[in-house]
Amino acid sequence: MLAERLGTAEKTGKLDLRGLVLGQVPPVIRALRNLVELDLGSNALTEVPAWLGELTSLEVLRLERNALEDLPRKLGRLDKLRVLELSHNKLQAVPSFVADLPALVSLDLGQNRVESVPRWLADRSALRALVLGKNPLDAFPEPVLALSGLTELGLAGLGFEALPGDLGALVALQKLDLGENRLSGLPASIGKLGALRALVLRGNRLTELPSMLPGLRLRALDVAGNRIGALPLAGHAWDEMEVLELGDNPLVVLPEEVAAFAALRRLDLRSTWLESLPDVLARLTGLRTLLLAGSPVGLRDGKPPDVLFTLEGLEELDLSLTGITALPEALGRLSRLKFLWLQGIPLASVPAVLRSMKHLEELDLTDTPFGRSDEVEALTAALPTTRVVCVDWAATYRAMLGDVYILRDDTGLDDVEIAKWVLARERGGRLPAAGRLRPVDEEVLERLHTLVFMQAPRRRVTTRSAVGVMVDLVARDQLGWHEVLEQLLEGAHASGMKSRRIGDTSR
């Protein structure tokens, strides 16, 4: 495989060695002096050789998802390098050689162990994209504010409770990621970002939509995972909005102004308090993805809202855990539907309409009463090109518990240390035990965090705050992981179709 890829690289100037579990950079690469792009991402590298700096034709170097703690200063010789991808490593500082890269326009240092940003970064005026998210920074990286040419800035998962007032001076920004912080508001200067088209505020502490946002000509907005109960959209400038992520908020009403978003293609309303949808959604003829999982839109009569069946351009529809108990024949009108998720819906039998939906690419029947019945086998035969999914959700929890046991044996971590890592990940703090973990160990911890803090609440098994209490008890050695996962499993069995307005008052 390596020889074949090297042969291709000699012709194209591009070498892809991603995901080969390489423990070292193959020395044969040193001879490829005309190499323009080198991808060594997702391997097991703990170091890279200084001779990489001899490949002076390189314009793109990808080293993400390895175990690198430092990089040789000689990489500063790569004076044509435009893109440097270093995310998901163990770097404790911004590599000093970055100061010597005159052509660098894109730098990704996300999810490392960087504690501070050097002052000289302010002089890298050619930078257009910079990602610093999910590092244990001790303060807001002030040098970033001098990079007036930035068009993309990633500051997710840094634990910020507030932002500097002059952030709005970065007027060239087109994409800004502030997700997974602790923000309860935004500085007014954000309203000056006239070029901004994509804004991520997922997983913060917003209780209302920041007042300046409707005035920005956004095309993508992600405010999922906050505490927003209403969306005042009067006078909005969102005619070009294509992606709107509103999930995991206590929204009771979806404002009718949403129907004016003629360009909208994706609408995420998962895990809200919505019990109905406005009929004016029928105007969204360009909508391709509608996600309603965990929102009680089927509680009133056990059926999906009628307006769904007017959205004939839909390609993805998630109705999991929505209180629906029956699927009408009108579902068949959605002839362009490719993905249909029906997880946890207590249907008495396989609806006849599903057997005729041969255009489906995937049908998810996980945790439905007939998930392993002969009816599903008949349905699978009727839809020969459709991937029919029937996963045992309980097995997911049990498999995770098994992975926790293996993690403890392999690393020496106990339940307390594992809990502290998961809590730090959830709260955006410094990740403990970092020096003792391999990438595969960190992957297990990431899956554990996702399962307990994201998947379980999304399925309305519990709430994020309730999970936080349980994991905190593990961190205090008052509870074990087996008890946490067993409680979540019991919750999965017991979770009915109650409205989140009743079942989750913690927000």
Automatic annotation (TrEMBL):
Q: Specify the superkingdom.
A: Bacteria
What residue intervals traverse the membrane? none
Keywords in alphabetical order, please.
Leucine-rich repeat, Repeat
Cited Pfam families: LRR_8
Question: Keyword Repeat, does the record have it?
Answer: yes
Entries under InterPro entries matching the protein: Leu-rich_rpt, Leu-rich_rpt_typical-subtyp, LRR_dom_sf, LRR_domain-containing
- Entry annotated with the keyword Repeat: yes
**Full protein name:** Leucine-rich repeat domain-containing protein
